[in-house]
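Ticket opened by: R.M.
Priority: normal
Category: complex prediction / small molecule

The reporter submitted a protein together with magnesium ion and asked that the result be attached to this ticket for the collaborator who will pick it up next week. Submitted input follows.
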Amino acid sequence: MSAAAVPYPDQTGLTVVIPCYNEVDNLAHSYAEIVAELGEFDLELIFVDDGSTDGSLDVIRELATSDPRVRYLSFTRNFGFEAAFSAGYRYASKAWVLHIDADQQFPAAEAHKLIAAAKAGYDAVFGVRTNRQDPMLRRWGTAAFHFLGRRVLRIEIPRGATAFRLVRSELARRIVDLRLGTPYFLATVPRLTNRYTTVPVAHRARERGESKVGMSFLSSHAIELFVGFSRRLSTAASVACLLASGIAVLLGVAGATGLLGGTALTATLLVLLAVALTALSLTVRSLVVVGAGQPRPRQYYVREASVAVDEADLLLCTSPTREAV
Ligand code: UDP
Ligand code: MG
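Result attached by the on-call engineer:
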């Protein structure tokens, strides 16, 4: 099909996916902004409650009751934002998915820029923050992450891409259904298609609530990407381990044969050090090389939803479901 013949959100409709974890003060504002800015489309809003404990789910239920365009999924616990948006993509019913955070940091009006860009023939359009309104540490962290990921490890990630994005639902679902051991959406899109692009978008500071994404999550997520999407780090780990084992063996031999002189105790300590170094380096290697990319059992479980959910995604014992599951 030629790019011109491919239907776009204004012809096919749009599912807006809003992941939320303890966003009770943001939800009504976020909903109002989305429908005000994008109400012209055949719209579906999917709120994904990622195990909130602050009453977010009650607000989402109210929104769903008063507006038939609103749907929701609620997780049995907090599974992390990657799981939250993945579930939203999975159950999107329209042909295009717009991902927008619940905290209004990405103005909904900016979605029009993504839609306009998609019309040039893209399957995925990522917003790039031109004036990012986050703390300096976060901005530096992202810069380091992109430098390491893109430049050093040569992982293809759309430059500056964020979670604010418009993706053809078929592509988004394909990626979710892969159920990757390292579910890194930004790096997976370029593995499936080259029809993606980026667009500069405005960004706002968070006005209500706190960021839910901590440094420990961000760093472990980055390591998952570095190990799962590049062989460079695992190759470097293997080489370092081989060297460490080699040195350890030499030390052990030198200690055992008395080449380094010293007492029997020194020799025994050297042999023990050699054994410990070898064991340590093999453990690190197996963690980095073998552990990378192992499939995970599941990314999330749903306890309640207003859409029909696959049985495999459900875990109903934690609370009763409301409908249609
Ligand atoms: N979020 C989520 N699960 C989590 C963490 C975050 O669903 O475990 C949601 C959160 O409610 C927000 C979006 O993901 O709608 C982005 O999170 P946040 O604004 O905290 O991230 P930041 O903008 O600081 O990177
Ligand atoms: Mg935010």
